[in-house]
């Protein structure tokens, strides 16, 4: 996988939740055959990266053990490792557990997507430093993976996020981890605050995160801060993701890959 900063076009990261309780698609892809079918579907839809997670981060969801997370993931990861079709795209493991991430990396995954930004597992930074994959570090007001509906106010939300992400970047680079392999994610939605104002502020000022010198990943898809009805959610997700791309996002994390691909290909206009 080449340095993401070198790509002129934004990449689509497709979401695959192998969970019973994720906010949008919990339970749909819990069985390995269903998850594998969705992988094939996203490839035909034009996905660049598929991000696979087996632990929900929604409010009131339950943390899962390392063993349970691996039990959900292993059949899918092993299938991916054996299938040549998948060489055309990259795979990301959505986990904060070092052992789970290492298992995925051992089977060809290229990205570790850590929503706790190294806070969930004290061994994650050392594991990453030894293997040097790509890693996405996400801002969250909460130190654990499961977010909350806590109302947090900010005097300068983007400044606050920059300070947090710079600290996280420094933890890795101090261990000789290559900065060019680090992706930053401002969180969005409840990861920032239950007040939607702050998420829209981040989208508007996203270009300021370029000061960190890392590609920017944004996950707006189907988040409640958009205020959209279920029927409008994917259109709103694509419209605001396009705004994020305009303001500097290199990767957009999406549930509806086909719609986002059509928007990027100028086949569909969203407002």
Features:
alpha/beta; 271 residues; TIM Barrel; 8 helices; 35% helix
Strand content: 5-15%
Detail the poorly predicted runs: none
Tally of individual helices: 8
By helix and strand content, what is the structural category? alpha/beta
Question: Can you give a write-up of this model?
Answer:
The chain is an alpha/beta fold and 271 residues long. The chain has one domain (4-264): TIM Barrel (Alpha-Beta Barrel). Helix content is 35%, strand content 13%. It has 8 helices and 8 strands; from the N terminus they run βαβαβαβαβαβαβαβα. The chain has helices spanning 32-45, 66-82, 98-106, 124-131, 157-173, 197-204, 233-246, 257-264; strands spanning 11-17, 49-53, 90-94, 111-114, 134-138, 182-185, 217-218, 251-254. An 8-stranded parallel beta sheet has the order 6-5-4-3-2-1-8-7. α1 (32-45) packs across α2. The chain is globular, with a radius of gyration of 17 Å. The two termini are 33 Å apart.
